TrEMBL record:
Residue span, Peptidase M48 domain: 74-249
GO CC annotations, alphabetized: mitochondrial inner membrane
GO terms for biological process, alphabetical: mitochondrial protein processing; protein quality control for misfolded or incompletely synthesized proteins
GO MF annotation: an example: metal ion binding
Record has Protease as a keyword: yes
PANTHER family: METALLOENDOPEPTIDASE OMA1, METALLOENDOPEPTIDASE OMA1, MITOCHONDRIAL
Cofactor(s) the protein needs: Zn(2+)
Protein known as: Peptidase M48 domain-containing protein
Amino acid sequence: MVHTTQPRHVVMVGIGATGFYLLYLLSTEKVEMTGRRRFNVISKALELEIGAESCREILYAERGKILSRNNQLTKMVDSVMRRLLPGTNMDKKGWQVYVIKDDDSANAFVLPGGKVFVYTGILSFCKDEDGLAAVLGHEIAHVVAHHPAESMSNKLIKLSAGIASSLLFDIAGHVSSLLMTMLYTLPSSRTQEAEADYIGLMLMAKACYKPEAAIGVWTRMHEQEDHEPLEFMSCHPSRYNRMKRIQGWLEKANEIYEENDCKAVRKNMPGFRKALFRTS
């Protein structure tokens, strides 16, 4: 209850808030491909270490279901990824694709450090290599923009607010935790997803994948989400807002596509094809 608040708690919270504000000012940085400013206190070294540990855990959990490097699907996913990477400022070393045979899981993600995981269940939403590029471009964009580090930093804000509320109101931080999730953490996630959509679209265009394919992929996913929630769609923006934004970005993406003479590139390179996503 409020009447249990002690003066020393108010002083402690005040000092903590001042310190955190100074930390926030010193720890804001710009996302290179969009110019958005965000809070981040996680070093690149720590982000990579967490990514490596997560990779080990996933490989152990999915053992027996990971397709070989010589598998047709693995080669195709790797090929699309390799075409997207030159559009980023990321070190190309260490990037590796893992395709997991699980037709019931429509999921894909990229860990810090460049470990790419694609579950075969998502391939039916992609339809072809352009669609696959939309998914991979989006996931690579999260790593390009260091969203994992930003998310971890945001959780520190939530934790700090919970501690402060528990000191002031003796409610163990439950209300504060809920409020911060509603007002800060989830909106931040939606901001990251929209940013990944934008960056991914530009990466597609630079790599000569058709930007319009992104609309088809996200539409198919959102339609499925109406019937059964998809793990891949967690915390993503609404279908209407997402499509409206992507439509607004298509003109710029198509300009990049034209500047790279992509029509001629696609005509002369047999690697672009209507792929049959066989999972056998």
